Amino acid sequence: MDEITGLVQALKSLTKGEEPNAVTLPVAEDGWNTRPDTDSYGIIYPIEFEADALNGDDVKLAAANEGSFDLYSRRKDGDGWIPLIRAVLQEHCGAAWRLNHRAHETDTGLWHWEWAFPLVCSSCCPW
After folding, report:
1. How would DSSP label each residue in 52-112?
2. d(Cα 71, Cα 75) in Å, to the nearest integer?
3. Of 10, 73, 76, 100, which is the most buried if we count CB atoms within 10 A?
4. CA–CA dist 9, 3 (Å, integer)
5. At what angle do helices 2-16 and 82-93 cross, to 10 degrees?
6. Which of these, 63, 48, 62, lies nearest to 116 by C-alpha position?
7. CB 44 within 8 A of CB 33
8. What global pTM score does this model have?
């Protein structure tokens, strides 16, 4: 779980700023209801869904969950946040992350990117 904690903390540092005077990406705390009034903002979903599992003898032996980081921006280039998000994912996940979604939302006028990253659960494994 240390890898998961490290990744989530690194993504949160992009949105909350751990250094004084750092430019940070605002974050929507609970999705649609609190969209910040800025050009760009992010949402972190540390554990979003179970991507795969290994089951045996009616017991879950292992699970692979996925989390995601969503970037919303009024600018098509992501306001400079795309390379920073990718660098954090590369540092913590290597080549295991992926750009899962990119679209322009016509109803809001926002560009939306979603990066998915794996979270492996070994705490439920007996070995």
Report:
1. EEEEETTEEEEEEEEEEEEEEESSTTGGG-HHHHHHHHHHHHTT--EEEEEEEETTTTEEE
2. 11
3. 73
4. 10
5. 160
6. 48
7. no
8. 0.71
